[in-house]
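Input.
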Amino acid sequence: MEAAHSSPAADSRETTVAPALPEAVTVTITVESPEQMQDLGRRLARVLAPGDLVMLTGELGAGKTTLTRGLGEGLGVRGAVTSPTFVIARVHPSLVEGPALVHVDAYRLGGGLDEMEDLDLDVSLPESVVVVEWGDGKVEDLSEDRLRVLIDRATGDTDDDRREVTLVGIGDRWKGLREDLV
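Output.
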């Protein structure tokens, strides 16, 4: 029996393996009013834990801050949750010995995580719930497990309050998201 031979060309070949993408769970919920958006935030707060990264995406007026206000109520944090557009980030400490809520508005930040480094989100994340409005393309590197919340609304001259809210749980942390929200 002859031994297998390997050629120099065969030895120099590299095998490229694409990194495995974290598993995602998607849940879509229709919200009919700002009150229902805030209630969704309260319900979502029940499943959040220290170390969770929540990324909110939606155009101006979609309801990102309204949802975050509900998160704050559900988490039992101090202070009124308002848009942090001009201060970039607000920290709302817990009043019930739970995690703090770090609310970030990345709208005016053009770069990625490097530009956000001064906010020390990587330091805050382990003991807080970090919610980043306009965070797509900027904060994904903070956590392999994260929750993306995409809020779609009717555009144009309309007073329609209906929103389609799509929750995309990325990573093992969010495998039970669908069941947790029931």
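The beta strands are 24-31, 53-57, 89-92, 100-105, 128-133, 146-153, 163-170.
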